[in-house]
UniProtKB/TrEMBL annotation:
Species of origin: Desulfallas thermosapovorans DSM 6562
GO molecular function: ATP binding; sequence-specific DNA binding
Domain Response regulatory: 6-120
The keyword Phosphoprotein belongs to this UniProt entry's keyword annotation: yes
Name of protein: Stage 0 sporulation protein A homolog
InterPro entries, per the entry: AAA+_ATPase, AAA_lid_NorR, CheY-like_superfamily, Homeodomain-like_sf, HTH_Fis, P-loop_NTPase, Sig_transdc_resp-reg_receiver, Sigma_54_int
An individual GO BP term: regulation of DNA-templated transcription
Sequence ranges assigned to domain Sigma-54 factor interaction in this UniProt record: 147-375
Role summary: May play the central regulatory role in sporulation. It may be an element of the effector pathway responsible for the activation of sporulation genes in response to nutritional stress. Spo0A may act in concert with spo0H (a sigma factor) to control the expression of some genes that are critical to the sporulation process.
A Pfam family recorded for this sequence: AAA_lid_14
Chain positions with 4-aspartylphosphate modification: D55
Gene3D superfamilies: 1.10.8.60, 3.40.50.2300, Homeodomain-like (1.10.10.60), P-loop containing nucleotide triphosphate hydrolases (3.40.50.300)
Keyword DNA-binding attached: yes
C-alpha cells in the first residue's frame, strides 16, 4: 500500500468505522468516516479519495446510490462494497455499476481486507496513470480460449466475470445460441478457487428425459433395466468443482425439483438408492431463452430460477462486436493450423466481407466458415472466393459501386469534378475523411483497394511500369508494425497472427528498430 492517500469509510456502525480507522491509519493512510449518506456526499464533494469502502445498508440511503454518486463525482476512486451474505445479489449489482469488489460481513480475515484495499489502490493507480498492460484476467482467458477482443461491452463482461469467479456463488449466463456460453463458463471456473478440480459440462436439452436424472445423480446397480453396475452421476464427478448446466431452460419439471433440492441441501440420492450423497458443487447455468417469461408461464420453477440467478452475465451476439471479428478469425485459423500445419492470412477484401455479415449463428457460425475457408484455400491467402456464396451475397447487398458518402451518392464537397481532380483533392485535404462514419470508412477502404487494383491492371495494359515493389525488409517492417498496432502491442497475439514464434518476433523488432507502443 502507498501511505498518505485518502480512504473513505461509509458505515452506520461506529465500531466498523473505528476498526478501519485504526487498521488504515497505522499504515499511514488518511481515513475519513461517514455514518450516513449525507455525510458521505459532503466528504465526496470536498476530498479526493483513492478508495471508498461503502456499506450497502445505511439509515438514510443505500450503498448503490452512494456508489453512483461517487463514480459520477470521482470516477477514479475505487469502491469496495461491504455487505451481509443476504445481500450478495445487490453487491454483485454494485460490481456491474462500477464497484471494484465486495467483501462480506462479519470480517473474519484482516489480511483479506488489507489485500483487497491494496489491489483496489493498485488498480486505481494503473487506471489513473493510464499504464497500458495486460488485464489481470488475460492469462486465464488465453488459457481457456476466451477471446474477449476490444469491444467495451466484452471487456466489461470479462472484468465482472473475473471478479465473480473468485466468489463461491452460482452464475446464470444468458446469450443467443453460439455466442460462447460454455467458454465463458470455463473462464469463470479457471479463475475460481476450484480451478484445480473438475469442470463438468452437461447439456440439459440434449439428453432424453428418462436419462437426465441418472446422468445428474447416478444410479445404483439394478435400479432399472440395463443398470448392471453402480454409476456415479455428474454431481459426484464434479464434487468440489464446477458443474455447467447448458440449456437449463430445457430441464423438465421433475428434474427442476431435484436440482432445487441439491442446491438447498447439498445432498442428492442416486436413482434407485436410499442413502443421501453429499456434494459441494458450484453451478454455472446457461440459457438462450427468457427464464423470467418461462417462470411466468409456469414452465420453470421460480424458486429454482432465483437459486441459479444469483449473478447474471449477458453475452452479446457477434453482430454487436464486429470489431472483434479479425481477432476471432485469426484465433480460429491458428487452431486450424495446429491440425493442418499451415496458417493462411485473410485478404482485406475477405475480412471486410466477414465483418459485414450479420452472423445469426454467432461465433459458432464464424468457426464453421473459417474452417471451411481454410480447407478450400490452396495458397497462403484466404480470398472472397473461399467464402460461401451466401456470405459474399450479404456483403454485395450492403455495398454499392457508388462512392461512400455521409449524405447522398457523392464524396462530400467533390461534386461535378473529374476523376483526377477528385482524387487529387482527396489526397490534399483530410476534411472529407473526417466526415466518414464507422460504416462509410469501411466502404471507402474497400473501394480504394479496388481502385488500386484496377489502376495497376490498366498500367499493365498500357505497358507502363508500375511502382517498384517494396523490399522484403520494408514489407516485414510495415507488416510487423501494423500487426503490433492492431493488437495493442501484445507480442503473443501478434506473433500468432503473423505465424511466427515470439522469439522470432522479438528478434525482428530489435533488428528493424520497431517501436512498440
Amino acid at each position: 500500500m502507498a501511505p498518505g492517500e485518502n480512504i473513505l469509510v461509509i458505515d452506520d456502525e461506529v465500531e466498523v468505522g473505528s476498526f478501519f480507522r485504526r487498521l488504515l491509519q497505522r499504515k499511514g493512510f488518511k481515513v475519513s468516516l461517514a455514518h450516513t449518506g449525507g455525510e458521505a456526499m459532503r466528504l465526496i464533494d470536498t476530498i479526493n479519495f483513492a478508495v471508498a469502502l461503502i456499506d450497502l445498508k445505511l439509515p438514510d440511503t443505500n450503498g448503490l446510490i452512494l456508489l453512483q454518486y461517487l463514480k459520477n463525482n470521482q470516477p477514479d476512486c475505487e469502491a469496495i462494497i461491504m455487505t451481509g451474505y443476504s445481500t450478495t445479489r445487490t453487491a454483485v449489482k454494485a460490481i456491474q455499476l462500477g464497484a471494484f469488489d465486495y467483501i462480506e460481513k462479519p470480517f473474519e480475515d484482516i489480511t483479506e481486507i488489507e489485500d483487497l484495499i491494496c489491489k483496489a489502490l493498485d488498480y486505481g493507480h494503473r487506471t489513473t496513470d493510464k499504464i497500458s498492460g495486460r488485464p489481470e484476467w488475460g492469462t486465464t482467458a488465453e488459457k481457456v480460449g476466451f477471446i474477449v477482443g476490444k469491444t467495451p461491452k466484452m471487456i466489461r463482461l470479462a472484468t465482472i466475470a473475473d471478479k465473480i469467479a473468485k466468489k463461491n456463488i452460482n452464475v446464470l449466463i444468458r446469450g443467443e445460441t453460439g455466442t460462447g456460453k460454455e467458454i465463458l463458463a470455463r473462464f469463470i471456473h479457471a479463475g475460481s478457487p476450484r480451478h484445480q478440480q473438475a469442470f463438468v459440462p452437461i447439456n440439459c436439452g440434449a439428453l432424453p428425459e428418462n436419462l437426465l436424472e441418472s446422468e445428474l445423480f447416478g444410479h445404483e446397480k439394478g435400479s432399472f433395466t440395463g443398470a448392471s453396475y453402480m454409476r456415479r452421476g455428474i454431481f459426484e464427478i464434479a464434487n468440489n468443482g464446477s458443474l455447467f448446466l447448458d440449456e437449463i431452460g430445457e430441464a423438465n419439471p421433475s428434474i427442476q425439483v431435484k436440482l432445487l433440492r441439491v442446491l438447498e441441501t447439498g445432498e442428492f440420492v442416486r436413482v434407485g438408492g436410499e442413502k443421501p450423497v453429499k456434494s459441494d458443487v458450484r453451478i454455472i447455468a446457461a440459457t438462450n431463452v427468457n427464464l423470467e417469461k418461462a417462470v411466468r408461464e409456469k414452465l420453470f420453477r421460480e424458486d429454482l430460477f432465483y437459486r441459479l440467478d444469483v449473478v447474471r452475465l449477458e453475452l452479446p451476439p457477434l453482430r454487436e462486436r464486429k470489431e472483434d471479428i479479425p481477432m476471432l478469425v485469426n484465433h480460429f485459423i491458428t487452431n486450424f493450423n495446429a491440425k493442418a500445419h499451415r496458417a493462411p492470412q485473410v485478404s482485406p477484401e475477405a475480412m471486410l466481407i466477414l465483418q459485414d455479415h450479420n452472423w445469426p449463428g454467432n461465433i459458432r457460425e464464424l468457426v464453421n466458415i473459417v474452417d471451411q475457408a481454410v480447407a478450400l484455400c490452396d495458397g497462403n491467402m484466404i480470398l472472397p472466393t473461399h467464402l460461401p456464396e451466401r456470405i459474399r451475397q450479404s456483403a454485395s447487398n450492403s455495398y454499392t459501386t457508388a462512392p461512400p458518402t455521409t449524405t447522398g451518392n457523392r464524396w462530400p464537397g467533390l461534386e461535378g469534378q473529374s476523376i483526377l481532380e477528385t482524387l487529387e483533392k482527396m489526397t490534399q485535404e483530410n476534411g472529407w475523411a473526417q466526415k466518414l462514419n464507422k460504416d462509410n470508412v469501411i466502404r471507402a477502404y474497400r473501394l480504394t483497394t479496388q481502385i488500386k487494383d484496377k489502376l495497376l491492371n490498366r498500367m499493365q495494359e498500357l505497358s507502363i511500369p508500375g511502382p517498384l515493389p517494396p523490399s522484403l525488409e520494408e514489407v516485414e517492417v510495415e507488416t510487423i508494425t501494423r500487426t503490433l498496432a492492431y493488437y495493442d502491442g501484445n507480442i503473443t497475439t501478434a506473433a500468432r497472427s503473423l505465424g511466427i514464434g515470439r522469439n522470432t518476433l522479438y528478434r525482428k523488432i530489435k533488428e528493424y528498430g520497431i517501436d512498440i507502443k
